[in-house]
Write a structure and sequence with these properties.
Arc Repressor Mutant, subunit A, two-stranded antiparallel ribbon, elongated, alpha+beta, about 10% strand
């Protein structure tokens, strides 16, 4: 009788191993982290291309199921397809769809397109106080502190989070719609503030934006 134990390669087929790591991670898992994890378990060198091929095979496998493999918020994640998710949420009485009030939407949009930015700048652009909106967005984990501005009083800077990207189904901030495509009702312009005349060449990645820089806050 052959009692030889299976090798890591035999015990953990790459496609199944990738699936297991994605299954146990509630947050999107970056490709580089997934790559390191499977290499560690298998005890051998595995190329990024091989991991990407395993991800694609999984994506194909899930096409006819209630699960989908998404590339979102800088990583990969297994999620229930929208139709099934809504049905399960209704049955179990789980979370209601996230609905943001107009002030929260305005504040979130301003932060998304001007990040990192401060409360005074948000207030100036909206023409109204935004303290409650900022605190609520922090509570919802859609924005986060991003250091302090190099301005009098050292006001806190805010930026969007990975949860914000995941909620919108975006891989990165570069996939945000262009300002010209956004309704002016969502980005209100007080009478003394000129609408942005240009768009940044490249939106900053979450976590990569220097905390000391404050875009377009020269008014």
């Amino acid at each position: 009788m052959n009692t030889q134990e299976a090798t890591p390669q035999e015990a953990y087929p790459l496609e199944n191993l990738v699936e297991a790591f994605l299954f146990v991670n509630p947050e999107p898992l970056a490709l580089k982290d997934l790559h390191k994890a499977v290499e560690y378990v298998r005890g051998e060198t595995i190329s990024l291309a091989e991991v990407e091929q395993a991800i694609e095979k999984l994506r194909q496998r899930y096409r006819s199921t209630s699960i989908e493999l998404l590339e979102v918020a800088g990583g990969y994640a297994l999620r229930t397809k929208p139709g099934y998710g809504e049905a399960l949420a209704r049955f179990w009485g789980l979370q209601q769809p996230l609905r943001l009030s107009r002030p929260l939407l305005e504040t979130l949009a301003i932060i998304a397109y001007h990040q990192p930015t401060t409360r005074p700048f948000i207030n100036h652009l909206r023409g109204a106080q935004s303290d409650y909106a900022v605190e609520k967005l922090l509570e919802l984990e859609l924005i986060e502190p991003a250091g302090r501005a190099d301005l009098p009083g050292k006001p806190l800077l805010y930026r969007t989070t990975k949860k914000f990207l995941e909620l919108l189904g975006l891989r990165s901030l570069e996939e945000l719609p262009r300002l010209s495509e956004i309704s002016q009702e969502l980005l209100p312009q007080p009478a003394d503030v000129e609408p942005p005349q240009h768009e940044p060449a490249q939106m900053p990645e979450v976590g990569d934006t220097p905390h000391h820089r404050l875009p377009e806050e020269k008014r």
